[in-house]
Amino acid sequence: MNRYRSHPMAFCWLSIAIFCLFPPPFSQAESPQEKLKPIQKWVTDSSASFIDIYRWFHANPELSFHEKETANRLAQLLKDAGYEVTTGIGGHGLVAILRNGAGPTVMFRTDLDALPVTEATELVYASQKKVTLEDGTPTGVMHACGHDIHMTNVVGTAQFMASHKDLWHGTLMIIGQPAEEKGEGAKAMLADKLFERFPQPDFALALHVDPTLPTGTIGYRAGYAMANVDSVDIVVKGKGGHGAYPHMTVDPIVQAAQLVMDLQTIVSREIAPSEPSVVTVGAIHGGTKHNVIGDSCHLQLTVRSYGEEVRQKLLDAIKRKANATAESFRAEMPDITVKEGTPSLFNDKSLTNSTVEILNEVLGDENVVPVDPSMGGEDFSRYGLAGVPIFMFRLGSVDAKRLARFEQLGQQPPSLHSPLYYPDAEDCLTTGVTASAAALLNLFETNSDNR
Questions:
Q1: Does the domain spanning 26-226+344-446 belong to CATH 3.40.630.10?
Q2: Of 136, 159, 199, 340, which one has the greatest count of Cβ atoms within 10 A?
Q3: What is the DSSP letter of 192?
Q4: Residue of 176, 209, 219, 207 lying closest to 194 (CA atoms)
Q5: Within 13 A of 436's CA, how many CA atoms are on the CB side?
Q6: Positive or negative, the Cα torsion across 377, 381, 382, 385?
Q7: What is the three-state SS of 213-259?
Q8: Would you say 7 is a known binding-site residue?
Q9: Backbone phi, then psi, for 416, in 5-degree steps?
Q10: Domain 228-340, what fold?
């Protein structure tokens, strides 16, 4: 070291040589702003093409497990971008793979299906599609839950990643999943050996539009973000007869009415206030005529929770309350059917935090906001239960001025599943593709063996 003190230029040249041979990591060599410029420029140049893709998906919706043309269109767009595409997984599900050397495998998922909702937006590209459901009911079909945005966002992000392979190394795995609205699509793809036929990802990302957040913003939640969704059918049993002689009957409607009220004490008196949960009786069917007491009454419940322990407490309490009500009426025990549906969605905390950090750099701290957990359901959760760290973030979808107008009128904006819901697509997609591409690049970079 003494010779470098006496020859400062020699030390300078040695430092330069070391820098050239061993440059600092990508994240240190460039500022975040410099790193993200390629994304922002590409999205700006490509945003017009997103709208054409979005409008096709919006105008051509298909119901759960019937997404044939939707899947074909998505598959072709991904093939055109250079991906290896396999279709027909778990129904109309698809997997698109882009390999780019050694590195992690990262999954990015979109859902494909639409809803049996007749669109009332009056958009020029509004869905005109009509179908007849299995029970014979005619209905319109609409992307009222934003899956058209989700698919377009995945296409835009996939195109960027394919055209900028110099920025990352690893394997990108795009999932087009059917039947999210029924909570069955992820289950079907996993049952079709998704993670045996294809690499099990190291991480998985997804987004979902949010009708309450303005365009340009991202919402996030670490930990539990969406709920367990279970359905319970209860058929209470009575003894029918004339409405003028109720003492000669066992009235199932009065029994059902008491049960509805008893069920409301489960959350308020048996579950800790710190544990969010819901028991809702969504439908009740019984009786045929004013003066006839029937033999039975059918109740349909939706039950929401987060943790498995609370979930089981709720279901056990519902059965106990139903049986106790029947006993108090000296009625036959009810028929109780529980259908355990979509499991709760738990965003991996480490993955969430690292992704939020890069999103703050892309969009600014003020545009990346924490959001409350939702009692809605999402079967993206099943990939987490299969052992993959997952993170689903929310994408603001309604222009701030439009949201302000709703507030001025004292109205809530149309919710998801409303026939009046529509996103402000261009701004929504600009933010979505920018955020998604940045999140993927960050995961490939921070988890690469070459970093």
A1: yes
A2: 159
A3: T
A4: 176
A5: 36
A6: negative
A7: EECCCEEECCEEEECEEEEEEEEEECECEECCCHHHCECHHHHHHHH
A8: no
A9: -55, 145
A10: Alpha-Beta Plaits (3.30.70)
Those residues with Cβ within 8 angstroms of residue 424's Cβ, 6 or more apart along the chain or in another chain:
215, 397, 398, 399, 402
The reply, when asked if residue 181 is annotated as ligand binding, is: yes
Helix 32-59 to helix 147-163 angle (10° resolution) is 130
pLDDT at residue 26 above 50? no
- 92 labeled part of a ligand binding site: no
CB crowding 384-412: b at 16 or more within 10 Å, else e: beeebbbbbbbbbbbbeeebeeeeeeeee
pLDDT tens by residue, 199-236: 999 999 999 999 999 999 999 999 999 999 999 999 99
Residue linked to tokens 């943790």:
307
66 is in an annotated binding site: no
Tokens of 156: 């835009």
| Model confidence pLDDT, tens digit, residues 315-362 | 999 999 999 999 999 999 999 999 999 999 999 999 999 999 999 999
Local confidence band at 300 (pLDDT 50, 70, 90 cut-offs): very high
* 295: helix, strand or coil: coil
Cross-sheet strand order for the sheet of 278-286: 278-286, 296-305, 228-237, 335-340
For the stretch 403-409, contacts whose Cβ atoms lie closer than 8 Å and that sit 24 or more positions apart, written own/partner, are 403/212, 403/214
| Residue 88 CB neighbour total at 10 angstroms | 12
Is 309 part of any known ligand binding site? no
Beta-ladder partners of 286: 297
Could you give the CA distance from residue 108 to residue 105 in angstroms, rounded to a whole number? 10
Is there a contact between 334 and 237 (Cβ–Cβ < 8 Å)? yes
pTM of this structure? 0.90
Under 8 Å between Cβ of 111 and 105: no
